[in-house]
């Protein structure tokens, strides 16, 4: 599941607003210029599919109310104009400076995926984080008895020394060259493997879990990483300008409640446990009455 969702996030288009100029349409996306793909395998550019994604994405907002009091809500329901691509783009669409294209519901550009995270591959990105965290915690669960058994033996023999000048510390391992040669020849000691893997898996599991937690917070708030950062900057600026402890709260017209927001991001929950790709399903959001004045808390 880690490999499936990782490759899916790498090769799936995040949802690109392609300019109508012919020189852009026929340009091939390449894994070298950070537009998706993996190990020099380029993603497939499907112009019709990208155009369909853009048309479907417009269903996320109510066209009849898109131009009403847009300064009273965040994210904005307004279309925007990209000065780099020279074209109109849907709401919540941003230009990625790394891969030089406009991404639907742009979250961030991920160097580990070699791709942007956006409307069309956000689910695969979230599931990659989920299964990577789950896999690392599973590895820790399998190794913790052996690891703490070795730690107990070491404490009885040498005391509490993690790294020690006489090389009797618990994590004083052989030189890297010896470890690599042992891995190649298949003669690496079990104790060395346990001492290397358990701290590594525990560290990665902790970091990935925190990272996943932040992204789930953004998801249930119906915000992207970029929008959350922009919102924090707006609130900080408001605090400085008003010299008060209250911060600005704007209604989010894209939020349908935390549960529905989560379902919108990951799809039907049973599909989370199957190696299948699920295309985002646009929902016709009923825009809230944005004439409500700004709140301060």
TrEMBL record:
UniProt EC number: 2.3.1.225
Record keywords: Acyltransferase, Membrane, Transferase, Transmembrane, Transmembrane helix
GO cellular component: membrane
Stretches that traverse the bilayer: 124-144, 196-217
Enzyme class: transferase
Main localization of the protein described in the UniProt heading: membrane
One of the record's GO molecular function terms: protein-cysteine S-palmitoyltransferase activity
The keyword Acyltransferase is annotated on this UniProt entry: yes
Limits of the Palmitoyltransferase DHHC domain: 78-228
Subcellular compartments: Membrane
Pfam families for the chain: DHHC (PF01529)
Positions in coiled-coil regions: none
Membrane topology: Multi-pass membrane protein
InterPro entries documented for this protein: Palmitoyltrfase_DHHC, PFA4/ZDH16/20/ERF2-like
Catalytic activity: L-cysteinyl-[protein] + hexadecanoyl-CoA = S-hexadecanoyl-L-cysteinyl-[protein] + CoA
Top-level taxon: Eukaryota
This protein's record includes keyword Nucleotide-binding: no
Family (UniProt): Belongs to the DHHC palmitoyltransferase family.
PANTHER family: PALMITOYLTRANSFERASE ZDHHC16
Written domain comment of the UniProt record: The DHHC domain is required for palmitoyltransferase activity.
Name this polypeptide is given: Palmitoyltransferase
Originating species: Fragilariopsis cylindrus CCMP1102
Taxonomic placement: Eukaryota, Sar, Stramenopiles, Ochrophyta, Bacillariophyta
């Amino acid at each position: 599941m880690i490999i499936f969702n990782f490759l899916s996030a790498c090769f799936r288009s995040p949802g690109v607003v392609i300019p109508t100029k012919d020189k852009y349409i026929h340009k091939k996306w390449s894994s070298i210029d950070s537009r998706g793909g993996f190990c020099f395998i380029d993603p497939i550019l499907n112009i019709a599919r990208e155009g369909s994604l853009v048309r479907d994405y417009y269903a996320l907002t109510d066209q009849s109310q898109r131009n009403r009091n847009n300064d009273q809500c965040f994210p904005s329901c307004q279309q925007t104009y990209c000065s780099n691509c020279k074209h109109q783009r849907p709401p919540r669409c941003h230009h990625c400076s790394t891969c030089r294209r406009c991404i639907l519901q742009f979250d961030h550009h991920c160097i580990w995926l070699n791709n942007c995270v956006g409307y069309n591959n956000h689910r695969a990105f979230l599931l990659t984080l989920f299964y990577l965290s789950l896999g690392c915690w599973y590895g820790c669960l399998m190794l913790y008895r052996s690891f703490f058994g070795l730690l107990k033996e070491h404490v009885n023999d040498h005391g509490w020394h993690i790294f020690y000048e006489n090389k009797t510390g618990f994590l004083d391992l052989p030189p890297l060259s010896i470890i690599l040669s042992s891995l190649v020849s298949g003669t690496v000691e079990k104790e060395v493997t346990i001492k290397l893997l358990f701290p590594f898996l525990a560290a990665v599991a902790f970091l990935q879990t925190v990272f996943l937690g932040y992204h789930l917070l953004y998801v249930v708030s119906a915000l992207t990483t970029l929008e959350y950062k922009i919102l924090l900057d707006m609130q900080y600026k408001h605090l400085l300008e008003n010299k008060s402890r209250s911060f600005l709260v704007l209604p989010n017209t894209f939020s349908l409640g935390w549960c529905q927001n989560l379902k919108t991001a990951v799809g039907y929950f049973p599909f989370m446990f199957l190696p299948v790709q699920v295309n985002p399903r646009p929902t016709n959001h009923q825009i809230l009455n944005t004439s409500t004045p700004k709140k301060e808390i």
